[in-house]
Amino acid sequence: MQTRDVLILPYKVTERRDGCWRYGAAMPIPDSRAQKIELFRETRRAFRRNEELFAEKSWVQVMMGQGIMPRSHHPIAANSSDADLARLLDTLRRTVAAAVRGLPDHASYVAHHGGIARDAG
């Protein structure tokens, strides 16, 4: 997906049609991008071509962040047993939990990156 198409996406999917929203909604996007949006809506499938800026997970975040929700599940779910899906989700939960444990809390992050002393005052 090209950066221009990512920037146009919110204008294409919003209900707003005042001011710049009307102009943005009228801007064309390539057929390949429209097909990508429809594929996501139908199956939650996202893919990345080599020249595209966004990876699959970024594409999913952009789509869902703009309110484009899948009507169905990814086809792999239909071909997996409940036990396989439970193992996959458990692995994902543990991976995310481990990553979160390694992150600083909000105050520490702001103090380090924002230059604000933790106990100033």
TrEMBL record:
This is Tryptophan 7-halogenase. It comes from the Bacteria. Pfam families: Trp_halogenase.
